[in-house]
Specification:
This protein is of the alpha+beta class. It has a single domain, classed as Outer membrane efflux proteins (OEP) (Up-down Bundle), CATH 1.20.1600.10. It is elongated and about 135 Å long. The two termini are 41 Å apart. It has eight helices and six strands; from the N terminus they run αβααββααβαββαα.
Length: 396
């Protein structure tokens, strides 16, 4: 029975791949396509370019004042005046612009990390759904043969009606599960298409479904938050808020004013007249309100980071618990359940062939073995999702 199942798996995979050979895809290919095509990646790149463009305008000077003046009522003279903020204002604006670029870049890393996680989960669902369809198609063919054989035996008077009814009921149940699994496969394909931008009608995993490698470090007492992109984003937000506060404080310094106006005639002993001065921030309430708002901004950024860190700690601990629980389930299947499944199949085949058990017992035994294999697929999916979540939280 096991040999027949392996042959059917290989044959089913071959049929699927022949149907749409160009639709085969690996997890890394899906990630590469997603990073290239997903609108969120384009948005992140645009936000970075926007902050870089704003950074170039950090040294933004006030527009000069240009006027015509006729102090002697005989001729008009051209005057020019330029006001500059205190130099520390421009320095702080430049530093703030640089930190905003870094913030946009870290925000892009958050989006990249989340998209990779979503694509990995979607690819796992595709593999799970695909292999589950293969398994259920094999079961469907087996139970169809059982149902047809039971009908023939009943018509020939060799089997009771209950055997015929039970065989048909089991076949219809498995066939219905197959139809639902095929719809789930279509949904998994749509989900991966939406994340990657791939337009192929039928995406097919290029490898069989298997458990992922265990994460390197899962100790909740020593996890490294410095590798998590989301926490790094909130750390950078604190830096940006602090730079903005320094900028607003520096605006309290007086500005500088430079001007020129030629008010004399051509025979005047002094042809050039210059104007030098300072601007005084007398409207202190305006500056104080902006400083106060910037100070609250630093407090908000700190609170956001603390909330994110607390959420991260809780999520990481939950992910570790999920991983350990699913690891035990996987070990149970690999060390016990799968072996029992093979033993059930081989024993029931021999017993049915020798007449020790009847047809109904044989069918129930096969059903139990099939359910174990389907349960193993569920265990792999839960385990892999736990690994993906842990790697995502670790910034991998």
């Amino acid at each position: 029975m096991r040999t027949k199942f392996l042959k059917y798996i290989i044959l089913s995979w071959t049929c699927f791949l022949v149907q749409d050979a160009m639709a085969q895809i690996t997890e890394q290919e899906a990630i590469d396509e997603g990073l290239k095509n997903h609108p969120q990646m384009q948005l992140s790149a645009q936000q970075i370019e926007q902050q870089r463009a704003l950074k170039k305008g950090s040294y933004n000077f006030n527009n000069p004042d240009i006027w015509l003046e006729g102090p002697t009522s005989v001729q008009f003279a051209v005057g020019v005046q330029q006001i500059f903020d205190f130099p520390t204002v421009y320095a702080n604006q430049a530093r703030l612009g640089k930190e905003n670029v870094t913030l946009a870049e870290k925000g892009s890393l958050v989006n990249v990390s989340q998209l990779k996680r979503d694509i990995r989960v979607a690819f796992q669902n595709l593999q799970y759904s695909y292999d589950r369809v293969v398994q259920l198609r094999y079961q469907d063919s087996i139970y169809q043969k059982f149902s047809e054989a039971a009908s023939r035996r009943f018509n020939a008077g060799e089997a009771p009606l209950i055997e015929k009814i039970n065989s048909e009921a089991r076949y219809k149940e498995v066939h219905n599960n197959l139809l639902r699994a095929e719809l789930e496969l279509m949904n998994a394909q749509n989900q991966l298409r939406n994340l990657t931008g791939i337009v192929s009608k039928a995406l097919i995993p290029a490898s069989a479904y298997e458990k992922l490698n265990a994460p390197v470090m899962i100790d909740t007492a020593s996890y490294d938050t410095l590798q998590n992109p989301l926490l790094n984003y909130y750390r950078q937000s604190r830096i940006v808020a602090g730079r903005n506060l320094k900028l607003e404080r520096s605006r309290l310094a007086p500005g500088l004013m430079v001007g020129y106006l030629n008010q004399g005639f051509s025979n005047s002993p002094v042809l050039y007249r210059f104007r030098l001065g300072i601007t005084v921030p007398v409207w202190f309430w305006t500056y104080n309100s902006r400083i106060r708002a910037a100070n609250i901004g630093t407090q908000i950024a700190q609170s956001q980071y603390l909330v994110a860190e607390k959420t991260y700690t809780s999520t990481y601990q939950q992910a570790v618990n999920d991983y350990r629980q699913n690891q035990k389930t996987i070990m149970y299947y690999e060390e016990t359940a799968l072996k029992q499944s093979d033993l059930i199949v081989s024993t029931s085949e021999r017993s049915y062939a020798s007449g020790i058990i009847d047809f109904m017992t044989y069918m129930l035994s096969l059903n139990q073995a099939f359910e174990i294999k389907l349960g193993y697929y569920d265990a792999i999916r839960n385990y892999n999702n736990a690994v993906i979540q842990l790697n995502y939280l670790k910034g991998e």
